[in-house]
């Protein structure tokens, strides 16, 4: 008689196995992805499966009662002690008795897909570099002496097929008590490295370790540091936390930090200390939030721009402040936590993504990992908006990258009523094209300013200023309402027919909100604000345009706005301002903090590390700082949306009146002064 | 016409090369061992060679004037600036012009043999793991951005054929200033690892580094710590230094240190700190002696017994105090200096030899490396005499190892007038078989006590006691002079006919020296001293005998006495005492501090590390602590020289009178008491 047929779903893998074969064994032989930490001893319950009964015409099989063995004592004990979902069995205990269909639920798969909040560019499939293994170790024999470590390594090889495993010094220090406390049974966390070097035992727990191991993905930005604490087995994000980069006190932007280092001998060491202290504050904050021991964080991934990358590593970033912007290293790095003085597990492995170029860092590499332009069929432009914008353009044939110095205007700096994106900041703006009256929304309040209950809703917090996304919308709305002309000049009350236009010397401002009656601020969009945004958006556009030149294209198929700030930009308004090239508005999407997502992917999927290392090597770099055409593109992009590019798709979608307020006012006046 | 013939001596390698080929190039192509750090740029002068002219019938070649090119400007400049021995040329500058014989002097060979002070078991051939490489690195190009490290690695690959080289974090921190200061020319110290992992850049100097790099070989003993500072390029020992192991305050012998750790929670951490502090004192002392920066020590090798091995590593040694004496690890270890808090180059690689068993440590492995029993044609017994003796027995077919707890008597402890081997200690003893009068020598004085000028020569230092080698000689001489019988009883004045026998209760002592007239000590050999030495020597003999049983032999071909103490033992006296099995006295040699020599071999020759790792795996371990026959052998060996073993070879060489002093005295008395 033929051996019973075992069919696994969802993989569809099938095979015949002798009666009595445990389901876990069958799964392993077929290469079915079924998890196990205890190696089939009925302890970990990671191999839970659901047998399906009845007729399956699709599979050509009928599963009868009794297709699996009766519950044995191990299974019974497990169920009574810890509970087991109805219909579930332990794959290592239940054995094949007849033809059977076995469903492997997602949580029993090693390479499970991580559940994510939004439709994102790519799925994260679990493939962590650090994994848990339960082993039973031979006891020492004085007649055939060998080290406890050597016997543990042998057990990992024999019971798990792990070859070339080594122990760190700390492993040796903890090993002997753990083995004896666990009566020669221990759970090891093993870091698998890059496949070239040996795997290494990071931690040893007596007996079966029931706890969780954690990983931390960190986006180390110039202004903010954001971290996500993940479960290294399920991939779940357990806590997220952020704090300001305390290096701000050495300079708001990166170049002023480089200058600090140039002017102050040893200054880079101080900045390194400060950023590592901040990372430790983040670790402690996020561990407290998740109520875990920081020592259980066994891996971390860092992404950062080149200057932060170097300062984190204790490398003077002075070379990044001058051509040819040489990186100390462009490659990916794997370090020990203690090499960076980080307060997590001292042997936690820190993976730092590769840098693309002197101005395009590991953060941009993380964006490339998350958004995968190299896998895109259509031509995608990815813009990570920040003080320094990173720009990627490409498809599966070729990917180009550059950075562009947009300055801090998009983050609310250099704006008259500008502020960081925080409660009280105006973040959304609409201006009625007829009445020229504005309405807006404020961070921390869901109600628009012209809706009932708004005043009560904002309450004591009040309206304090305007943040980056708010100023972009305000100026774009002013342009659409005919209050700002293509050259960026704000019209007067007479020219626009609204008393919201306030005279300010030779220029005019638009009064967005007047809180002065209640002691609050008057929030105006000034001519200076428009000029600051024009400079920033011109730099962004010029960078993107330079890459398009390099690729020989005049249009892109889609645009992705990345970065914490990019997530809040309205595509339509960005397009009206001419921040990005013309493109169907529905093809402009936001990727949120793509750099952070990239860090998380690299944390949870070690193959992704090898992937991005390869991708970065193939990305073609363009250095904007020394490219003469960048300057040309920058000047032409000063116009709103653009002096020469037609922006036909945009014009078809939104009204773009073309008044001209240049009557010898601001710009004319300047010209006259120059002449005189 | 045929290309000129180039013959290298002493290798005899030969080949034809086109006119104009640099001698260094010809050497490399033929695989001739010719050193170079600068890669043929005429900077380092490591490739110096001596052309030989005239007729060489042996080689069938005539070398004419003009067989090498004229001196070029590089060679001239080098010679005028730094000098060049008459007849020498720079191999990278001188080119082939006709048939030529080229001698490669020893100092121009990478794998040169280290000059050693005495005929030792094996030569040391240089093959250091850390080497210097001078490279010229491509300058950064912002249009093809890559890290400075990546271009350095490329240069090492292209200019030296090094593949898979990585940089440590510290390399990254020092790299950029070094490259710029050296105008893109740097010298790197590269650690080559075990051939499995990547090579790693440890240090980068701007330009050509003219200095030396150093290695430290350390024998970490229970009582003393000894270090040798070596030049990693020539192998020369530049300084040697030693200090007491400060752990002595936790216990004289190893087991009392293990007990300290058992009785005092955290005690092992204290012992680790203390021994690491002592190692740092040694480093600082030896660096001062050699007038070098400790940061230029780029490698160190440690050998130690298992307890010291574990305590150095920060592992609680408690398991080594009880059966089954499980080591935390038996394998060799490679660590960073900073992992052990050592004040040398922070990335210096520390290599620790493997341990053989729970009682037979890395020090015994080092003895095996130095004395190479596994390569011996005849059967050799190697005894490393100390508080705990390590014993190796074997030949190229098989090697066995055990340890034996001899106790501290051989080091002068537990001896009535015992003291450490230091100035003032009696170290050599002769007793006239007729007159029974002694003469002796004292450490620090070359004159025998019965020679003219002795009193003046010892001067104020005086005669303070008797050291280990002194007590061994004293008792053996007493045995040969008929003052001690085979059972170990000291005879009375009446029995022996000399007034030097002093009554002491029921037993007698032999007065070796009476300094009381000058206020100095009376130095006696007491019955207790003989008993203590009998216990120690029985343990030593029993261990050796156990290994002989295991191998099925009754005699060994030769005996090697190792250990700092072993170097001072007179083979004849050791044999008379029966410390070692019977053997022709001329076949008993001393290897000095073989463990220290083994450490030095592993430091200077990285292939030796792989060799001893393999050898240790094949050594068969015997655990004396639980072997019943050990006890039998121990009892039988109490007799001097032995109760049952004939010691015929010894008896043929020296007089061994057989008096019996047992007349109901000490031993008889004891027996009576038991009966009563």
Automatic annotation (TrEMBL), chains A, B:
One GO MF term: iron-sulfur cluster binding
Name under which the protein is recorded: DUF4445 domain-containing protein
Record-linked Gene3D superfamilies: 3.10.20.30, 3.10.20.880, Domain of unknown function (DUF4445)
InterPro entries named among the record's database cross-references: 2Fe-2S_ferredoxin-like_sf (IPR036010), 2Fe-2S_ferredoxin-type (IPR001041), Beta-grasp_dom_sf (IPR012675), Corrinoid_activation_enz (IPR052911), Raco-like_middle (IPR041414), Raco-like_middle_sf (IPR042259), RACo_C (IPR027980), RACo_linker (IPR040506)
Domain annotation 2Fe-2S ferredoxin-type: ranges: 4-108
Species lineage: Bacteria, Pseudomonadati, Pseudomonadota, Alphaproteobacteria, Rhodobacterales
SUPFAM superfamilies, per the entry: 2Fe-2S ferredoxin-like
Organism the protein comes from: Algicella marina
């Amino acid at each position: 008689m033929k051996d019973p047929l075992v069919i696994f779903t969802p993989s569809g893998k099938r095979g015949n196995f002798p009666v009595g074969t445990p389901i876990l064994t069958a799964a392993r032989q077929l290469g079915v992805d079924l998890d196990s930490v205890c190696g089939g001893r009925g302890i970990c319950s990671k191999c839970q499966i659901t047998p399906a009964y009845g007729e399956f015409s699709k599979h050509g099989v009928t599963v009868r009662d009794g297709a699996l063995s009766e519950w044995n004592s191990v299974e019974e004990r497990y169920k009574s002690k810890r509970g087991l979902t109805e219909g579930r069995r332990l794959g290592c205990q239940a054995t094949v008795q007849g033809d059977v269909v076995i469903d492997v639920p997602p949580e029993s798969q090693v390479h499970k897909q991580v559940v994510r909040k939004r439709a994102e560019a790519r799925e994260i499939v679990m493939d962590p570099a650090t994994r848990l293994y339960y082993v039973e170790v031979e006891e020492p024999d004085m007649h055939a002496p060998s080290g406890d470590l050597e016997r543990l390594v042998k057990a990992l090889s024999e019971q798990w097929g792990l070859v070339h495993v080594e122990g760190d010094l700390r492993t040796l220090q903890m090993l002997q008590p753990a083995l004896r406390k666990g009566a020669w049974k221990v759970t090891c966390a093993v870091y698998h490295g890059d496949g070239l070097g040996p795997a290494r035992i990071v931690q040893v727990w007596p007996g079966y370790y029931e706890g969780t191991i954690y990983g931390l993905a960190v986006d180390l930005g110039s202004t903010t540091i954001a971290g996500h604490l993940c479960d290294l087995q399920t991939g779940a994000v357990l806590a997220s936390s952020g704090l300001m980069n305390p290096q701000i006190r050495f300079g708001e932007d990166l170049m002023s930090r480089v200058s600090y280092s140039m002017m102050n001998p040893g200054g880079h060491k101080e900045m390194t200390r400060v950023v590592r202290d901040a990372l430790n504050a983040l670790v402690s904050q996020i561990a407290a939030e998740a109520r875990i021991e920081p020592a259980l964080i066994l891996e971390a991934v860092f992404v950062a721009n080149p200057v932060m990358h170097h300062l984190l590593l204790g490398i003077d970033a002075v070379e990044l402040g001058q051509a040819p912007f040489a990186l100390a290293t462009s490659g990916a790095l794997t370090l020990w936590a203690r090499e960076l003085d980080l307060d997590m597990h001292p042997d936690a492995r820190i993976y730092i993504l590769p840098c693309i170029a002197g101005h395009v860092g590991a953060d941009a590499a993380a964006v490339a990992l998350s958004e995968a332009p190299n896998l895109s069929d259509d031509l995608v432009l990815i813009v990570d908006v920040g003080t320094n914008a990173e720009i990627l353009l490409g498809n599966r044939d070729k990917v180009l990258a550059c950075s562009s110095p947009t300055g801090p205007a998009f983050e609310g700096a250099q704006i008259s009523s500008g502020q960081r994106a925080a409660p009280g900041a105006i973040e959304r703006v609409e201006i009625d094209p007829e009445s020229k009256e504005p309405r807006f929304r404020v961070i921390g309040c869901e109600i628009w300013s012209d809706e009932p209950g708004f005043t009560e809703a904002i309450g004591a917090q009040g309206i304090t200023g305007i943040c980056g996304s708010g100023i972009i919308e305000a100026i774009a709305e002013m342009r659409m309402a005919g209050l700002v002309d293509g050259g960026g000049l704000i019209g007067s009350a007479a020219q626009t027919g609204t008393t919201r236009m306030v005279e300010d010397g030779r220029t005019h401002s638009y009064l967005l909100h007047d809180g002065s009656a209640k002691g609050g601020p008057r929030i105006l969009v000034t001519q200076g604000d428009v000029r600051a945004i024009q400079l920033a958006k011109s730099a962004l556009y010029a960078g993107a345009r330079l890459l398009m030149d390099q690729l020989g294209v005049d249009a892109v198929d889609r645009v992705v706005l990345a970065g914490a700030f990019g997530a809040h930009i309205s595509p339509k308004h960005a397009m009206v301002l001419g921040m990005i090239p013309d493109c169907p508005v529905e093809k402009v999407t936001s990727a949120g903090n793509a750099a952070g997502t990239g860090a998380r992917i690299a944390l949870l999927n070690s193959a992704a590390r090898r992937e991005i290392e390869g991708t970065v090597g193939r990305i073609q770099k363009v250095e904007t700082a020394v490219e003469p055409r960048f300057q040309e593109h920058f000047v032409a992009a000063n116009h709103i949306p653009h002096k020469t590019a037609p922006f036909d798709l945009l014009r078809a979608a939104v009204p773009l009146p073309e008044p001209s307020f240049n009557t010898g006012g601001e710009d004319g006046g300047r010209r006259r002064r120059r002449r005189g």
